[in-house]
Amino acid sequence: MGRTLLTGLGIVMALFPDRVTDWYQQVAFENPEAAIGKDWLPSAVRAEGLLIGLLALVGGRGYAWLLNLLGIAGGIVLLFPKRYLDWGARIAYRNPEEIEWVDWFPALARGLGVIYVVGSLRAYTRRHCAE
User: Fold this and answer.
1) pLDDT tens, 15-72?
2) Please, are residues 38 and 94 in contact by the beta-carbon 8 Å criterion?
3) Closest alpha carbon to 18 in 48, 35, 34, 41
4) Alpha helices (H) in 16-93, listed in sequence order
5) Residues 6+ apart with CB under 8 A from 117
6) Which residues share a beta bridge with 93?
7) Where in the chain are the domains?
């Protein structure tokens, strides 16, 4: 999964939560102007970024747990991409029923799920099956 990539992602999320959210909405939603995020959304993006960035930067057991969690989330997205996205929209937005996903976005989410699962499994085998 690349600690450098995850560290960078975490830093960007922590420093620019509004820009990250705006970018996501532009890419993922047919109608990004309709999305009304809950008041805590920028703080949650910032906190998630701090957690991801710090765990990836420090490494060790915390990073291993992060990779395990990403693998589990990736498996769920792989199997149920539209449900996962709809669930996230219900949590993060005041008006999830008005949000329309770009047609190809669930397939992209499924692809990211594959990357997370494969990366998590590779890291697990490196930690536990090294000769």
Assistant:
1) 999 999 999 999 999 999 999 999 999 999 999 999 999 999 998 999 999 999 999 9
2) yes
3) 41
4) 17-28, 41-58, 60-79, 81-92
5) 71, 74, 75, 78
6) 37
7) 3-125
